[in-house]
Every structure is written in structure tokens, then in C-alpha cells.
């Protein structure tokens, strides 16, 4: 029986115009993803509703809903915000950027941070932090990667200011971190062109050499495959056990106008991991490719002015909650657009 062709959801349901600078980070809340957190070069993080307060997507899209004021603003950063991670319980989130510290926030309280990991110890990061992720049982650990070439692990529950562990195998900036769902691994992507998988429990690291600097990672739910974005204009789906490339997007010899050779683009799996999504440096579009065939399944114009779209994020739908899958994209224009399926 043939599989139904996966489609890129393309019905605009919300436009967030709350930021005053480029969008560098997008993440949905856990447990259904009702809310969206966005981080910008304006040094702020904004909390907004992902969808309009109506279940009628068609009505909302016709109304061209635009959110101009966030529910909450978090404004303690002194430099551009580059990444955001949300804890499983939705009570806290972490953010990083040029401040050289990992900020931990209480979602309900925008007045200030709960903690700042790394700024009260000589063992903190010494340069810009590009990426952050929760790890460990109950999301009790934060993992951060920096231009100082190190990855640091922080104990959220301990009052000790020192990192739990420092990983220093990389020879250049750490651009991306992904945490597989098995709870004892970390995957890091570096500008030195290496994909490193750490088994923290066994104290082992596996290194895969990529053809160009690594800028983006997304690990599949089964932890067996990882999506790797690199600065040679390709996104590769890698088998983590064998270290082999299962498929590359766009297909060889068919770039389809996609460009990524100088800037960090955050790509992701989408639609129950049947699609790969990515923005582009040159034309303001977000493209989607079929995971099984590698073929293009469409593109959506995020920036009519053709500006950089640097980050896309997918939120899986839930039949129990009557929600469909959504994706959000943003970039240099400072606007985040959220799309859903018209089905």
C-alpha cells in the first residue's frame, strides 16, 4: 500500500510582530504546544499563543490574525538571544546568547531569572553561548554549547555554581545541541565539521566527520537518526549507529534555489518525521522535502522581501486535543509566521 504524499502545511494562522530585531530562536511549549517562545537580537524573549483562540483555522487565516503584544516579555539579556529550551513541565525555560551565562526562567515570572549558570564561577563559558538543551531525568540538567568550543553540563537542582561536566573535544564553536529521548546521550554539532555523540553513562564519544561546518541538529524520536544542517547547502539525515548518510536534502544536483553556505539555519523534522523543513539564506522561503524520497513537497514564502529565514520549528498535532500540526518560521525581518494544514 502506497503512502499518502506528505504536504507542507501552508495555511497562515498567526503572525507575531512583537519583536524589534531578527528572530534567532523559536520553541513551542511542552505538553501540546499551546504557547510559543521567541528569542531575538532585540535581547528579549516573548511568550505568545501559537494559535488564535479559535478552533476554526480557515476563519483565522482569512482574518490574517496578527499578534502585536506578547503575553509576557522576558528582558534580562544584555545581548542577542540565540537559543531557548523549555522544560518538560512547562514551569521553566532556559535561554542563552552573548551573555556567556545560561539563564533559567520561571515562566510565570518575567521580573528576573531564577538562576544564571556560569556567571558566578571561573568555570563558566568564556564566549557567546549558541545553544542550550534540557537533559537528564526530570530535565534536571542543562547543556550549553559555546563559541569557546566547549559543552558544559549544569545541575539545575544543585546550588553549586560549577558545571557538572565540561566537554572539550571540539576544535571550533559549538553551534547546536540535541538530546535524544533515551536520557543518557548528547549530540553536538560544531563548526569544525564534526558531529559528536556522547554517551554520558559510558563516558564514550563517537565522532562523525561532515563535509562542512555543522550549524543545525534535530534528533528523531527513536534516537537512531539525526538531521544535520551544514554550510555546504545540504541537510543530511544520518544513521547514528552506522554513521552513514541515509538521505540528503535537496537531492544531489537539484538545489531548488535553496542556499546555506555562510549563516546558521535551524532545520527540523516535521509532520510525524515525514518531512524536513528549512529556511534559506537568499529568498525568504521555507522549503519541505519528503524524508523517504528526498523530493521537494513545496515551499512557503515567509519573507516577501526575500530576507533570510534562519529558524523553523515544528509542533506535532494531538488527536486527543483536537489540534493539528503547526510550524513556525522567522528570521532577519523580526516577524514569526505560524502555519497549519488546511485539511
UniProtKB/TrEMBL annotation:
Gene Ontology cellular component list: catalytic step 2 spliceosome; cytoplasm
Database matches in PANTHER family: WD REPEAT DOMAIN-CONTAINING PROTEIN 83 (PTHR22842:SF3), WD40 REPEAT PROTEIN (PTHR22842)
WD repeats: 74-115, 122-164
Principal subcellular localization: cytoplasm
Pfam family of the protein (one): WD40
Organism expressing this protein natively: Capronia epimyces CBS 606.96
Domain of life: Eukaryota
Family recorded in the similarity comment: Belongs to the WD repeat MORG1 family.
Lineage start: Eukaryota, Fungi, Dikarya, Ascomycota, Pezizomycotina
Name by which UniProt lists this protein: Uncharacterized protein
Residues passing through the membrane, by range: none
Keywords, in A-Z order: Cytoplasm, Repeat, WD repeat
Subcellular locations according to the entry: Cytoplasm
UniProt record, GO biological process: mRNA splicing, via spliceosome
InterPro entries: WD40/YVTN_repeat-like_dom_sf (IPR015943), WD40_PAC1 (IPR020472), WD40_repeat_CS (IPR019775), WD40_repeat_dom_sf (IPR036322), WD40_rpt (IPR001680), WD_repeat_MORG1 (IPR051980)
Amino acid at each position: 500500500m502506497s503512502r499518502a504524499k506528505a504536504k507542507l502545511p501552508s495555511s497562515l494562522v498567526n503572525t507575531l510582530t512583537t519583536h524589534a530585531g531578527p528572530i534567532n530562536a523559536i520553541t513551542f511549549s511542552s505538553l501540546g504546544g499551546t504557547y510559543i517562545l521567541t528569542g531575538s537580537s532585540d535581547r528579549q524573549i516573548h511568550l505568545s499563543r501559537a494559535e488564535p483562540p479559535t478552533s476554526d483555522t480557515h476563519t483565522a487565516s482569512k482574518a490574517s490574525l496578527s499578534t502585536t503584544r506578547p503575553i509576557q516579555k522576558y528582558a534580562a539579556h544584555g545581548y542577542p538571544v540565540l537559543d531557548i529550551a523549555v522544560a518538560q513541565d512547562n514551569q521553566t525555560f532556559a535561554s542563552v546568547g552573548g551573555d556567556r551565562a545560561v539563564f533559567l526562567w520561571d515562566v510565570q515570572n518575567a521580573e528576573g531569572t531564577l538562576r544564571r549558570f556560569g556567571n558566578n564561577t571561573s568555570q563558566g563559558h568564556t564566549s557567546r553561548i549558541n545553544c542550550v538543551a534540557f537533559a537528564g531525568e526530570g530535565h534536571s540538567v542543562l547543556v550549553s554549547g559555546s563559541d569557546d568550543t566547549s559543552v558544559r553540563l549544569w545541575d539545575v537542582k544543585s546550588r553549586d555554581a560549577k558545571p557538572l561536566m565540561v566537554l572539550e573535544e571540539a576544535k571550533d564553536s559549538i553551534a547546536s545541541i540535541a538530546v535524544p529521548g533515551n536520557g543518557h546521550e548528547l549530540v553536538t554539532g560544531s563548526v569544525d565539521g564534526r558531529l559528536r555523540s556522547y554517551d554520558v553513562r559510558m563516558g564514550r564519544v563517537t565522532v562523525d566527520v561532515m563535509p562542512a561546518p555543522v550549524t543545525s541538529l534535530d534528533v528523531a524520536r527513536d534516537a537512531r537518526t539525526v538531521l544535520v544542517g551544514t554550510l555546504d547547502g545540504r541537510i543530511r539525515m544520518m544513521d547514528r549507529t552506522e554513521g552513514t548518510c541515509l538521505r540528503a536534502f535537496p537531492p544531489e544536483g537539484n538545489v531548488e534555489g535553496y542556499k546555506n553556505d555562510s549563516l546558521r539555519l535551524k532545520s527540523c523534522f516535521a509532520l510525524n518525521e515525514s518531512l524536513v523543513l528549512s529556511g534559506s539564506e537568499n529568498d525568504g522561503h521555507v522549503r519541505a522535502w519528503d524524508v523517504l524520497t528526498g523530493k521537494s513537497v513545496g515551499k512557503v514564502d515567509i519573507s516577501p522581501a526575500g530576507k533570510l529565514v534562519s529558524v523553523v520549528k515544528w509542533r506535532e498535532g494531538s488527536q486527543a486535543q483536537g489540534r493539528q500540526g503547526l510550524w513556525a518560521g522567522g528570521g532577519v525581518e523580526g516577524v514569526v509566521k505560524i502555519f497549519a494544514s488546511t485539511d
